[in-house]
Amino acid sequence: MALPDIQTKARFVVEYPINASPKILFPYLATASGLAQWFCDDVRYVEGQRLNFIWDRENHYAEISGQRLNRAVRFVFLDEHRQPVADANYLEFTLESSEVTDEVFLRVTDYSPVQDADDQQEMWDGLVYKLREQVGG
Protein backbone atom coordinates (compact mmCIF):
# COMPACT_ATOMS: atom_id res chain seq x y z
CA MET A 1 0.00 0.00 0.00
CA ALA A 2 1.43 3.37 -1.02
CA LEU A 3 1.38 6.16 1.49
CA PRO A 4 -0.16 9.45 0.37
CA ASP A 5 2.28 12.09 -0.78
CA ILE A 6 2.32 14.45 2.19
CA GLN A 7 3.81 17.81 1.39
CA THR A 8 4.53 20.59 3.82
CA LYS A 9 2.42 23.61 2.97
CA ALA A 10 2.88 27.24 3.81
CA ARG A 11 1.07 30.53 3.35
CA PHE A 12 2.86 32.93 1.04
CA VAL A 13 1.48 36.46 1.33
CA VAL A 14 2.51 39.39 -0.83
CA GLU A 15 0.98 42.82 -1.51
CA TYR A 16 1.13 44.97 -4.62
CA PRO A 17 -0.06 48.53 -5.23
CA ILE A 18 -2.33 48.60 -8.28
CA ASN A 19 -3.37 51.80 -9.99
CA ALA A 20 -6.99 50.78 -10.66
CA SER A 21 -10.23 50.97 -8.73
CA PRO A 22 -11.51 47.81 -7.01
CA LYS A 23 -14.58 47.95 -9.27
CA ILE A 24 -12.39 47.69 -12.39
CA LEU A 25 -9.88 45.26 -10.86
CA PHE A 26 -12.22 42.74 -9.22
CA PRO A 27 -13.51 41.04 -12.41
CA TYR A 28 -9.88 40.21 -13.29
CA LEU A 29 -9.59 38.38 -9.95
CA ALA A 30 -12.96 36.68 -9.67
CA THR A 31 -14.18 35.69 -13.15
CA ALA A 32 -12.98 33.01 -15.53
CA SER A 33 -12.58 35.46 -18.42
CA GLY A 34 -10.70 37.97 -16.25
CA LEU A 35 -8.34 35.39 -14.74
CA ALA A 36 -7.59 33.89 -18.16
CA GLN A 37 -6.16 37.23 -19.28
CA TRP A 38 -3.29 37.22 -16.79
CA PHE A 39 -3.25 34.30 -14.38
CA CYS A 40 -3.01 31.10 -16.40
CA ASP A 41 -3.41 29.67 -19.89
CA ASP A 42 -7.20 29.45 -19.60
CA VAL A 43 -9.97 29.35 -17.00
CA ARG A 44 -13.38 27.78 -17.55
CA TYR A 45 -16.52 27.63 -15.44
CA VAL A 46 -17.34 24.00 -14.73
CA GLU A 47 -20.49 24.07 -12.61
CA GLY A 48 -21.89 26.28 -9.89
CA GLN A 49 -19.01 27.92 -8.05
CA ARG A 50 -16.33 25.68 -9.64
CA LEU A 51 -13.67 26.62 -12.15
CA ASN A 52 -11.02 24.78 -14.11
CA PHE A 53 -7.65 26.56 -14.14
CA ILE A 54 -5.51 25.34 -17.02
CA TRP A 55 -1.70 25.54 -16.94
CA ASP A 56 0.44 23.73 -19.52
CA ARG A 57 -2.61 21.75 -20.70
CA GLU A 58 -3.21 20.41 -17.16
CA ASN A 59 -6.54 20.89 -15.40
CA HIS A 60 -6.67 22.22 -11.83
CA TYR A 61 -10.17 22.38 -10.41
CA ALA A 62 -11.10 24.86 -7.71
CA GLU A 63 -14.20 26.05 -5.93
CA ILE A 64 -14.99 29.63 -5.00
CA SER A 65 -15.28 29.23 -1.24
CA GLY A 66 -15.82 32.86 -0.40
CA GLN A 67 -16.38 36.11 -2.21
CA ARG A 68 -17.07 39.72 -1.24
CA LEU A 69 -17.87 41.87 -4.26
CA ASN A 70 -15.02 44.24 -5.20
CA ARG A 71 -13.15 43.14 -2.06
CA ALA A 72 -12.03 39.48 -1.90
CA VAL A 73 -12.29 36.04 -3.47
CA ARG A 74 -10.90 32.67 -2.37
CA PHE A 75 -10.38 29.63 -4.58
CA VAL A 76 -9.97 26.28 -2.82
CA PHE A 77 -8.41 23.62 -5.02
CA LEU A 78 -10.02 20.20 -5.35
CA ASP A 79 -8.54 16.75 -5.97
CA GLU A 80 -8.32 15.08 -9.38
CA HIS A 81 -11.91 13.80 -8.91
CA ARG A 82 -13.10 17.39 -8.30
CA GLN A 83 -13.75 16.63 -4.64
CA PRO A 84 -12.82 18.76 -1.60
CA VAL A 85 -9.77 17.62 0.37
CA ALA A 86 -8.53 18.27 3.89
CA ASP A 87 -5.85 20.96 4.10
CA ALA A 88 -6.51 21.94 0.49
CA ASN A 89 -4.37 24.38 -1.44
CA TYR A 90 -6.06 27.74 -1.79
CA LEU A 91 -5.51 31.10 -3.38
CA GLU A 92 -7.04 34.31 -2.06
CA PHE A 93 -7.07 37.76 -3.63
CA THR A 94 -7.97 40.68 -1.35
CA LEU A 95 -8.27 44.32 -2.36
CA GLU A 96 -7.47 46.95 0.26
CA SER A 97 -7.98 50.66 -0.29
CA SER A 98 -6.18 53.37 1.63
CA GLU A 99 -8.61 56.17 2.41
CA VAL A 100 -5.68 58.50 3.11
CA THR A 101 -3.70 58.00 -0.11
CA ASP A 102 -6.51 56.57 -2.30
CA GLU A 103 -4.16 53.72 -3.27
CA VAL A 104 -5.44 50.22 -3.96
CA PHE A 105 -3.40 47.21 -2.86
CA LEU A 106 -3.80 43.63 -4.02
CA ARG A 107 -2.94 41.09 -1.33
CA VAL A 108 -2.24 37.60 -2.65
CA THR A 109 -2.39 34.68 -0.22
CA ASP A 110 -1.08 31.48 -1.79
CA TYR A 111 -1.41 28.40 0.43
CA SER A 112 0.34 25.53 -1.31
CA PRO A 113 3.29 23.14 -1.02
CA VAL A 114 6.43 24.93 0.12
CA GLN A 115 8.46 26.39 -2.74
CA ASP A 116 11.56 28.48 -2.86
CA ALA A 117 10.41 31.89 -1.57
CA ASP A 118 12.44 33.79 -4.17
CA ASP A 119 10.95 31.71 -7.01
CA GLN A 120 7.45 32.23 -5.65
CA GLN A 121 8.02 35.98 -5.30
CA GLU A 122 9.33 36.13 -8.86
CA MET A 123 6.34 34.16 -10.17
CA TRP A 124 3.82 36.50 -8.48
CA ASP A 125 5.78 39.60 -9.56
CA GLY A 126 5.46 38.40 -13.16
CA LEU A 127 1.77 37.56 -12.86
CA VAL A 128 0.90 40.90 -11.26
CA TYR A 129 2.93 42.69 -13.94
CA LYS A 130 0.64 41.02 -16.54
CA LEU A 131 -2.41 42.00 -14.49
CA ARG A 132 -1.26 45.63 -14.36
CA GLU A 133 -0.85 45.61 -18.15
CA GLN A 134 -4.46 44.44 -18.49
CA VAL A 135 -5.97 47.03 -16.15
CA GLY A 136 -3.63 49.84 -17.08
CA GLY A 137 -2.34 50.15 -13.55
UniProtKB/TrEMBL annotation:
It holds the Pfam family START_2. Gene3D superfamilies: 3.30.530.20. This is START-like domain-containing protein. Residues 8-136 form the START-like domain. It comes from the Bacteria.
